[in-house]
Specification:
By secondary structure, this protein is mostly helical. Helix content is 68%, strand content 4%.
Length: 322
């Protein structure tokens, strides 16, 4: 099998993840996400001692809350997919509304409000009208790139919280594929056999409408076309942004992105054209690379500390701090 499309995809998504982290660090340094007033800085200094003392007592309290929130989030996602498999038209409609809304929000984030909404509506209309065209996949890839850049607004408080999220996402991914294989005579854990149940047909319908759920490269013949899930790219961007914000080292960022690229490269050995949980290689590789960076930078203790808050200088209204 010719793999030139695969390696183009690997390089493209790795570069996208890298640029997302650079963009996030630039926004943090420029203060665009938050430029606290002098009074806020004084209050911060006055409360610093109180926060340090409170961290010791609140770490144990926050961890159970985060575990509950994390598992509730994935359970809600899974339940939504399972319920909406009986109403595929409703799910497709909601996804179209969500994509157009996201496009408008993204443009308003980067441009003046009125101009951003105007261009967002225009781009959304172009996307809606591009269905069944040869360049639809390019527009979808642009939208996925927007997702990756906006993922830099998501910051995890510490390595432990990030790991809980990553491994839960991996389990969710595998369980979703197992559910899609539920009615097959010989179910496969890490890939899809013959697509026969409603949930599997729902994903096929999603693909038919060409929603930006996968990053695709479609040069040449159909047999050489490749794809990678949008969620896999967003998770890569979140990990890269965490690495850049925690280590403040371009070399560590390069190492983490390289491990992400290698993890995707392993997928070239998967001999199937059906969905496969890419996180099964991405999560372990990226986790190990973060630990290696911590060892190299002598930040191992801080990395495994539950009370470590590398992003405490960012305001909650400017980012989603998890």
């Amino acid at each position: 099998m010719v793999l030139y499309n695969f390696w183009i995809m690997d390089v493209s998504v790795s570069a996208l993840v890298f640029l997302s982290a650079i963009y996030g660090e630039k926004m943090r340094r420029s203060g665009q996400w938050g430029n606290p007033s002098k009074s806020d800085e004084i209050d911060s200094q006055e409360n610093k001692t109180v926060e340090i003392a409170a961290d010791k007592g609140s770490a144990d309290l926050k961890l159970p809350q985060y575990l509950l929130l994390n598992f509730t989030y994935f359970a809600a996602m899974g339940l939504t997919v399972v319920v909406l498999q009986y109403y595929p038209s409703v799910m497709i409609f909601l996804q179209h509304v969500a994509v157009v809304s996201f496009i408008m929000i993204a443009f308003a984030q980067w441009l003046p409000l009125k101009l951003g909404y105007l261009l967002g509506i225009l781009f959304g209309a172009i996307w809606l009208l591009s269905v069944q065209t040869e360049f639809r996949w390019i527009i979808n890839n642009i939208i996925i790139a927007m997702f990756a850049f906006l993922a830099s607004h998501v910051q995890f408080r510490n390595f432990a919280f990030l790991q809980i999220f990553l491994w839960t996402a991996l389990v969710y991914d595998v369980c979703l594929l197992a559910r899609m294989n539920y009615s097959t005579p010989s179910p496969q854990v890490l890939s899809i056999g013959e697509c026969g149940n409603l949930l599997c047909q729902l994903f096929e319908m999603n693909s038919a409408w060409e929603l930006p759920s996968v990053f695709t490269v479609r040069f040449g013949e159909n047999q050489t076309h490749v794809f990678l899930g949008t969620g896999d790219i967003i998770i890569g961007a979140i990990v890269a942004n965490f690495a850049m914000s925690f280590f403040k080292s371009p070399r560590c960022l390069v190492g983490v992105v390289a491990s992400y690229s290698v993890a995707i490269g392993f997928l070239s050995q998967v001999d199937t054209n059906r969905p496969y949980p890419a996180l099964i290689s991405i999560v372990p590789m990226c986790s190990v690379s973060l630990v290696c960076c911590a060892v190299a930078c002598k930040k191992t203790k801080r990395l495994f500390s539950l009370s470590c808050k590398e992003n405490s200088d960012l305001r909650d209204e400017d980012i989603l701090l998890i």
